[in-house]
């Protein structure tokens, strides 16, 4: 059974963090490393990971590659295996966004977003479950979004991918409940990262969001949720308002979102 009542402690643990070359993932990786956790850091930009590895070589192992590729996922599994021990934490953080109406968007945009934000996450997790199971106290942390709880216009592919991640996380949590593996779903609101500079096939579209958190703050909240073994955390007051208003009164939220679109 998971160590209920006792905090999950990163000290001396082994973690995999995807999307560790920027934003939330980089901050999560750095905060874990600074607390004596060894991090296997995954992303496509080698230079970014190499720079981090230079500063933290004894507790930081980069794996350069695209998580949608099976060969990258196999290299992650092999890298965990080379440590000759169990895996204690998997942070599925890598993700991409897209903005703009659904009808005129390409089928590739839908596929691209779903591949990174959902299918790659599910398959990487499937591959790493045997190593997580060997830990006496493992956690899978899935970085979702408030848009995985409440859908908004012009982000249909992204909302679909994060709703899928949400549903899959809830199901997996129940499946793993008696196997010493916790599942924490972290749902940030708008975060000041490189996310909006690399949108998939979205032209000059901009996101209309009020207020935002720096990635370091999101990372602190995510690690706190892991430590406290939370099933789900929704970050920021605005995010909570959006999600709880939608849960309490869906027709009202539908009206608000229709007005916002005009
Ligand atoms: N920013 C926001 O407003 C916001 C709000 C709510 C939720 N989120 C979620 O938070 C997570 C992190 O986003 P962020 O804001 O930190 O954005 P970010 O700065 O753009 O970071 C995204 C990370 O994912 C990696 N990545 C993207 N595609 C990848 C792929 N195919 N294979 C491997 N790595 C890949 C990127 O690295 P490389 O480019 O080097 O591969 C980068 O390290 C995402 O899941 C996002 O959906 C973000």
Automatic annotation (TrEMBL):
PROSITE patterns: ADH_SHORT. SUPFAM superfamilies: NAD(P)-binding Rossmann-fold domains. The keyword Oxidoreductase applies. Transmembrane segments: none annotated. InterPro entries: NAD(P)-bd_dom_sf (IPR036291), Sc_DH/Rdtase_CS (IPR020904), SDR_fam (IPR002347). Belongs to the short-chain dehydrogenases/reductases (SDR) family. PANTHER family: DEHYDROGENASE/REDUCTASE SDR FAMILY MEMBER 7B (PTHR44196), DEHYDROGENASE_REDUCTASE SDR FAMILY MEMBER 7B (PTHR44196:SF1). This is SDR family NAD(P)-dependent oxidoreductase. It comes from Roseiconus lacunae.
